Amino acid sequence: MTHTLVASDLDRTLIYSAAAMDLTMPDAEAPRLLCVEVYEHRPLSYVTETAAALLAGLPARALFVPATTRTREQYRRIHLPGPPPPFAVCANGGHLLVDGESDRDWQRTVAARLAEGSAPLDEVRAHLVRAADPAWLLRERTAEDLFAYLVVERALLPDGWIEELTAWADARGWSVSLQGRKVYAVPKPLTKSAAVTEVRRRTGAAEILAAGDSLLDADLLLAADRAWRPAHGELAATGFHAPQVTALPERGIAAGEAILRAFCEGVREGDGVLGAPV
């Protein structure tokens, strides 16, 4: 019997804030929504009810693995339909959660790869702060002591600044991604695909299906046997394509539903639930 692992980004791939839904139909035709995240006592992220039903039924036929750049704390705010995923990837691959707890062996593996293949976080964070102009810098943060990001007024970013930062970071084993108002600096060895590949090794999955919308998802889609991206996001804006990646026409929360349909249709008949975490 073969088994399928379904790995997906969350924000703007499966779940959507009100601002990201892109509801263009008449109000009377808008889909019913289910809230899946509350932040500071307010509803924050949603799926359509149809998407919720598809997601709830997926674990009976495949191993569903959320793969997010969110920190563990941010991920734990999300309550997806269906049983809790036995595996989840957080911090862009920096943490592999097994039954909700970060796997220590994976932490050691990541630490060794970062030490060998990229400059220290403190060096990169200090450069980010020095290079940023207070006129457009709103906040600077680190995530899980693994990577750094800036929140900026994007319209005020000087021409060529991202390109200069990208070249500086590349020489030190880091990559840069501009997503909305956030400028991410992430070590190149820190990838969602590496963590998902580890799940595949542990479970013996024969096939990986994947989805994502941003440049930080590109490695995950390339590592998959079949993958999908929505019509919005960085990957769509840059024309990202690969033989195994399908570009969907849907945008916004409708794309989340379309991706889940593709996952369910992509899981071959006869696939069952994979083995327990090891």
Number of helices: 9
Give me the count of strands: 14
Helix content: 25-40%
Task: Give the strand content.
Answer: 25-35%
> Regions with pLDDT < 50 over 5+ consecutive residues?
272-278
- C-alpha Rg, in Å? 19 Å
Instruction: Identify the overall geometry.
Output: globular
What structural category characterises the helix and strand content? alpha/beta
What do the pLDDT scores average to? 94
What does this protein structure show overall?
It is a single chain. 30% of the residues lie in helices and 25% in strands. The protein has nine helices and 14 strands. The strands form four sheets. Strands 4-1-12-13-14 form a five-stranded parallel β-sheet. A four-stranded antiparallel β-sheet has the order 8-9-11-10. It has a three-stranded antiparallel β-sheet with strand order 5-6-7, covered by helices on one side.
